[in-house]
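[Q] Does anyone have a clean structure-token version of this?
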Amino acid sequence: MRDAQVAPTHTPALLDAAVRRATELLRAGDLVALPTETVYGLAANALDARAVSRIFAAKGRPSHNPVIVHISSIDMARQCVRDWPKAADRLARVFWPGPLTLVLRRAPCIPDIITAGGDTVGVRWPSHPVIEAVIESCGFPLAAPSANVSNRLSATTAEHVRRGLGHRVQLILDGGPCAIGIESTVLDLTAKPPRILRPGLIGESALAAALGKRVISMSMPNNHGRLRSPGRLPRHYTSKARVYIWNWRNEAALRLKIAEHGLTTKGCHVLARSRVPSSR
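[A] Here you go.
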């Protein structure tokens, strides 16, 4: 496949043209990269198992890692799940559209590949006008995990997508840099008490306040049994950069450590709680 077309969306006319083209491709079972407020997503028709399988192939994503279904209304969310409890309704009305994914019992229309064969599905209403317009135009929900090669850092600009997956997707809609830049919080409402399966911008205290009851966090990723959420694998969002953890007495000692590891100060970024080095 040749390099992807990058479609701008910064005027009404360009947005309309990009949405029409994206809708054509998605209805045909193809992949489109779309912006959300969290990260860019690699999208396919969530009700079409063959189309979703192309996401897994393009990303090199393991089949036991489920993907989130993106919707553009509470009514569409209800069509994707077996039941819609009061807790889901309360959270949706507080946090949607926004960076919160709700895990609920899946409806029969959701294919096994979405849920990794499990009986639950994660649904989210993203708050970005581009993906909302595309979902509305398609009339069906979209499976849309992050638009990056599996285990690599998530794409937060159209250029990130082009560099990582440009030869594996036909169209990238450029909606500008993502406002948040990290994946959504995932909350399992089938557990009692509800459990955060993946941390994100919306934290435990905010969720508990909205629900009026306790929410707990699952502290350690695991792969025992079926996964109910992405972000639960032991290795995830891996940077290509090398990371060193050092102590140093002064800036001269830091520079010596950098040199001892065959590095240069121009090629290093330092995160320091104290003893912050100069920019020289």
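[Q] Thanks! Anything notable?
[A] The longest strand covers residues 100-105.
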